[in-house]
Amino acid sequence: MNYDLKEKVVIITGAARGVGRTMVNAFVEQGARVVATDRDADGLAETCADFPDVVSLVEDISTPEGAEKIVETAVRHYGHLDVCVNNAAVAPHTSILEEKMEVWDRVYAVNCRGTFLMTQAAGKALIAGHRGGRIINFSSGASLRGGPGAAAYASSRAATEGFSRVAAIELAPHNILVNTISPGLIDTQPKPLPPDMAKALESRIPTMPLARAGQPEEVAHVVMFLASDASSFITGTVIHVDGGTSVGSRFSGSVVDDDPRYDWVTGRDQSR
Ligand SMILES: NC(=O)c1ccc[n+]([C@@H]2O[C@H](COP(=O)([O-])OP(=O)(O)OC[C@H]3O[C@@H](n4cnc5c(N)ncnc54)[C@H](O)[C@@H]3O)[C@@H](O)[C@H]2O)c1
């Protein structure tokens, strides 16, 4: 994939593993100047081990101090900011009847407040830079479907979609484009898989239109598109990177149209 991201200053949150780590690799490969950040110091060090030029920063995006420090660091180090990718999130699952309020609040603090604080801090820096910019937030296919145990996660991800639409409208006059990536099942799970998760995935994957999990690179490619000049007329949208899961289930068999009501439409019965 080749997008011209040379010299673009890009913040990537949640960079210690999964999609975030892959995005750091992908943006560096395209010549971007990256600030990689996460609350997990060990994972972040591993992500950045081969990239001495990447600015790596251990911060918590759910606090105003953390969000401001991340953006300030990017501007201080590189002189300005171009792109902020708000990928960090948490997704603990439990039933609504057993959900603890503290856990619910922590999920919202990271997934919603963190996205808000990062968007606010990045928005201010982008406006001050007078060069426009991009903010790319993350949601999830879980926001569209009910799934057991996903109440806090699914609703918090749906909230980022609503939030991002408002941000797109408010920041458009500054030529700051705000979009949301909504991944489906992406292969970032811990290995080996916990047995319950393995079972759930085994039954779910064959029902997905493309019948496979996505790779983190397949998410990174779309994020790079949204960060690049190629997407200059796209703002306020949600892009599903989910192998078709949001539109339906895998189809097997053949389509047979034998409904006699429509013989006159299909031409099967020439007399009507
Ligand atoms: N992997 C999937 O199947 C999937 C599906 C749908 C949506 N998503 C979304 O894609 C994004 C990436 O998913 P992933 O699977 O790579 O996630 P992950 O859980 O593997 O990684 C998330 C990273 O965010 C970091 N993080 C969490 N809270 C933080 C905080 N307060 N401050 C700083 N860093 C914090 C974690 O330490 C971790 O490194 C997330 O926004 C997620 O909601 C993923």
Describe the model:
- By secondary structure, the chain is of the alpha/beta class.
- It is 41% helix and 14% strand.
- It contains eight helices and seven strands.
- A seven-stranded parallel sheet has the order 3-2-1-4-5-6-7, with helices on both faces.
- The protein is globular and about 75 Å long.
- Nicotinamide-adenine-dinucleotide binds at residues 13-14, 16-20, 38-40, 43, 60-62, 87-91, 110, 114, 138, 140-141, 157, 183, 185-186, 188.
Gist?
With 272 residues, the chain is of the alpha/beta class. The chain has helices spanning 18-29, 41-48, 64-78, 101-129, 151-171, 195-204, 216-227, 263-266; strands spanning 9-13, 33-38, 55-58, 83-86, 133-138, 176-183, 238-241.
Q: Which helices and strands, and how do they pair?
A:
Blueprint: E1 9-13, H1 18-29, E2 33-38, H2 41-48, E3 55-58, H3 64-78, E4 83-86, H4 101-129, E5 133-138, H5 151-171, E6 176-183, H6 195-204, H7 216-227, E7 238-241, H8 263-266
Parallel strand pairs: 1-2, 1-4, 2-3, 4-5, 5-6, 6-7
Helix pairs in contact: 1-7, 3-4, 4-5
Nicotinamide-adenine-dinucleotide is lined by residues 13-14, 16-20, 38-40, 43, 60-62, 87-91, 110, 114, 138, 140-141, 157, 183, 185-186, 188.
